[in-house]
Amino acid sequence: MDDKQYLQTLILEGEHQQQDFKYRVSDAQKLAKSVSAFANTNGGRLLIGVRDDGNMSGVRSEEEIYMMHQAAYRYCRPEASIQFDTYHVDRRTIVVATVPPSDRRPICALNEEGHQRAYIRIADENIVASPVHLAIWRESQKLQGTMLTYTDSVQTILDILQDQHLPLNHIVRLSRLPRPKVVTLLARLIRFNVVQWEYTNQQFLFYQ
């Protein structure tokens, strides 16, 4: 399989949770969002020089390639692992940037003000991670032998979520517990597969 056939095979998959097309790279900070999202989820690849319709337009300049490296190594905290592979098709250069899932989550992208935000990949979108996701990553770094204790607070949250899909703010209000405590408990319950989450209508919902 030559370069053209290989890239066409990838392009036929379209954009999905582990693949994104980038027509051109004009802003390393924006590209860092995609790197963050892939690293914090299941990994993925960016096909750079490919339009949304799958047409291979090619990378236009060395500056774009420089910005790709900047996205991973300057605008991600901590630095994200990323591999760049270059392919040549019909006198056009296509770059495939492969991002593995990170074991140092969250990988955050720096915005224009220098603030850090973590992203996750859902379908073909990069979504800002919720406070619960940040707590889930903190929980995952704890010892594997940690037990889940069914305290009154835990039971309160489980009672609220019985047969309901609710956003974080609703759970906080109904439980009358401090928001940081609710975030921590939800993360723990998700870690032990007692509670699940989904992203619907541009919000995270939690349920049993």
Quick synopsis:
This protein has 208 residues and is α+β, with helices and mostly antiparallel strands.
Summarize the SSE layout with pairings.
Blueprint: H1 3-12, E1 19-22, H2 28-40, E2 44-48, H3 62-73, E3 76-77, E4 83-89, E5 92-99, E6 108-110, E7 116-122, E8 125-128, H4 131-140, H5 152-161, H6 168-175, H7 179-191, E9 196-200, E10 203-207
Parallel strand pairs: 1-2
Antiparallel strand pairs: 2-5, 3-6, 4-5, 6-7, 7-8, 9-10
Helix pairs in contact: 2-3, 4-7
Describe this structure in words.
- A hairpin with a 2-residue loop joins β7 (116-122) and β8.
- It is built from 7 helices and 10 strands.
- α4 (131-140) crosses α7 (179-191).
- The protein folds into 2 domains: 3-128, Schlafen, AAA domain (Methyltransferase, Cobalt-precorrin-4 Transmethylase, Domain 2, 2-Layer Sandwich); 131-207, Arc Repressor Mutant, subunit A.
- The N and C termini lie far apart (47 Å).
- The strands form 3 sheets. A 4-stranded mixed β-sheet has the order 1-2-5-4. A 4-stranded antiparallel β-sheet has the order 3-6-7-8. It has a two-stranded antiparallel sheet with strand order 9-10.
- With 208 residues, it is α+β, with helices and mostly antiparallel strands.
